[in-house]
Amino acid sequence: MIRAALRTCLFALALALWATAAPAASFKATVEKPPTDQGDTFELVLSVIGRDSLEPPNISPLNRDFEILDRGKRSRMESVNGRMVEVNEWVLTLAPKRAGHLVIPALTLGSETSAPIEMDVAPGSTAEPPDDGPIALSVDVLGTPPFYLQSEIPVVVRMYDRVGALEASADQPAADGATFTPDGTLKRFSRIYGRQRYRVVELRYIMRPQRTGTIQISSVALRASIPVSPPGAQEQARAMGRPAMPWLGGGFDAGRKVTVFANPVEVTILPRPAGVTGWFLPARAVRLKETWSSPPAKAKVGVALTRTLRLEVQGASPAQLPPLKPAETDGVRQYADEEHPEAAQVGGAPGAIAEVHISVVPTRAGSITLPAITVPWWNITTNRAETAQLPPVTLQVAGAADPAGIAPPPAPAKDAPKPQATPADDAGPLPLRDIAAIALVVVMIGGFLLFSGRRAGRNARAMAEPTAGPVAARPARPGRPTPTRPAVRRPRLAVPDEKTAAGAVEAACKAGHATAAYRAYLDWNRASGPGHAGTASARTPAMAAALHEISRHLYAGDGDTWDGGSFRSAFAAERKAALKPAKARTARGLAPLYPKAR
Asked: What is the dihedral of CA 416, 422, 427, 428, to 10 degrees?
């Protein structure tokens, strides 16, 4: 009865946990490479996660402020909470109908609704064919001046095709004093200009000026092969009231190769303003933010706090963002991860963001003040220098519980989920399925305890009852006493997990605690394989020297400080040596059955 109930609880618990881990289907809208000005096109991606929909989303609200140039659908796999799920996306190529503050409205897919997206579109020349020929080419510089020496300027090359070119290829833009790098893949769509439909092909480049002054982008050549309509097509077009098209009716031979050129474009590059030193960041707006994993007023010695710095810059490229490095401060050790600046929508306009996570580990108790963080930048709107700043942060650090050092963190259970920090403003009531899962866990634990208690009671009663008859003892060998079982059994030592022990060594080295590092190394050595159980032996000379140094520090009292970095480097080499397989013994060959006579 109890076993059947336990099996039922376990099955229900597995179902509840699977339902909790399964990602809920969500519908969202994102903008890839927001438009720089009115003449720029961009892509709106509508994605649904965890399922597919035969019915497309309702995109009719977009027609108010945007022209839908092209649409398509794609599917891919993505890892969500450790599980691979299907992601289906509708990709729309849009062009703004006007400049100013535009809003991509909330779109619906069945019962789900996406969040609206705001953007600011600067005035600019509308992308149109430079002439009414069968095929044309244009080069346009996107973005709003001024442009400075360290700027990354987007440039787009567009081919306009009215007749369906058989093949076409264009040169890459070039200029004396600037370099050009392709940015993205070809973008194709159809658009009507006047009364004619064109097939438009776009290719973006990033222009990086190498000098100040006026830089001229040379004329770009387009080589194409266009078809020719049959004889009489020109007269037929005139009879139907269409405009004259001299390339029809024999103007070109079938498949004849033609070459067209785009007009040259001039770009003015300004020098760095006078008096500006250090990192130069021209932008329209800069915001600097920070968040902490736990309140700085509740810090403890040896316990790491995670500080996240986020820099949001409007009107700049990712390459222009300065590095976010905290200043060295007495009483704390800070470890920053690598930054990855990326292009993003900032305040409804194109820009870039950079985020860095810093581990702050206090090394002494008391009040510790981290200095202010400042990012100087140049406001291209007001043409003056400004500064984005975070105020100083004061840590109230409590003393460590273990004066000898910080003990290694306990080994987590293999199946236990890793805790994830969630913002306080996102806290809310638990979902129903989470409550059901917790209740099933409680029921399972209660049933297990009840079953274990009854079984222990039966075993106690069985031990208390006398046996039915004497039990024959094993006869002892002559001259030897009869073996008896010891009254007390020694408990087996729990073998620590190798990865957990290695992580404890890394943490203790970063925190600078020699006692904890030595304890964690012994645990790792016990778990690393036979022949090293609990000993302080070393496989590499670097580890032997590091063990000698830490022993002098702990037991001989030689030296006031201990270098955790050297011990960490030696431990890394020791781990690599432990992973190498031991050389296999070569078996001695057998003598031949019929030896040859010499």
From this structure: -40
Q: What tens digit of pLDDT does each residue of 361-411 get?
A: 999 999 999 999 999 999 988 889 999 999 999 999 998 654 444 444 444
What's the whole-model pTM score? 0.53
Max Cα-Cα span within the chain: 128
Yes or no: say if 545 and 570 are a contact pair by the CB < 8 Å rule: yes
Residue 51 token pair = 């399922």
- How many other β-carbons are positioned within 10 Å of the β-carbon of residue 367? 10
Among candidates 422, 400, 419, 408, which has minimal Cα distance to 299?
400
How far CA 205 is from CA of 223, 321, 382, in Å, comes to: 19, 20, 28
Residue 106 token pair: 């909330």
Q: Characterize the bridge pairing of strands 213-217 and 265-270.
A: antiparallel
Which positions ≥6 away from 501 have C-beta within 8 Å?
408, 411, 520, 521, 523, 524, 526, 527
Q: Give one DSSP letter per residue of 391-452, joined into a string.
A: --EEEEEEPPS-TT-PPPPPPPPTTSPPP----GGG--PPPHHHHHHHHHHHHHHHHHHHHH
How far, CA to CA in Å, does 192 sit from each of 69, 162, 169, 189, 200? 9, 10, 22, 10, 10
CA distance 1 to 446: 15
Torsion, Cα 541 545 551 552, to 10 degrees, reads: 160
User: SS3 helix, strand, coil % of the chain, rounded to 5?
Assistant: 20, 35, 45
Are 254 and 275 in contact by the 8 Å Cβ rule? The answer is no
Spatial CA neighbour of 282 closest among 324, 313, 323: 313
Distance between CA atoms of residues 174 and 498, nearest Å:
57
Whether the predicted pLDDT of 505 surpasses 60: yes
Structure tokens at 61: 């609200």
What single letter denotes the amino acid at residue 499?
Answer: K
The mean-pLDDT minimum among 311-320, 389-398, 572-581 falls in 572-581
8 A C-beta contact, residue 45 and residue 55: no
| Distance, CA of 95 to CA of 92 (rounded, Å) | 10
Quote the CA–CA distance of 351 and 341 in Å, as a whole number: 11
Determine what percent of the chain is predicted with pLDDT higher than 90.
26
71-98: pLDDT as tens digits: 888 888 887 777 888 888 999 999 998 8
Q: Is 48 helix (H, G, I), strand (E, B) or coil?
A: strand
**Phi, psi (degrees; rounded to nearest 5) at 576:** -65, -40
Q: What is the DSSP-derived secondary structure letter of residue 280?
A: -
d(CA 168, CA 222): 7
CA atoms within 13 A on the CB side of 415: 2
Is 510 in contact with 538 (CB distance < 8 Å)? no
Give the model's pLDDT for residue 470: 44
Dihedral of alpha carbons 33, 35, 36, 41, sign: positive
Question: What region, left, alpha or beta, does residue 534 occupy, with left being phi > 0 and alpha being psi -120 to 50 degrees?
Answer: left
User: What's the CA gap between 154 and 179, in Å, rounded?
Assistant: 12
Tokens linked to 424: 């306080």
Interior CA angle at 183 toward 181 and 185, to 5°?
125
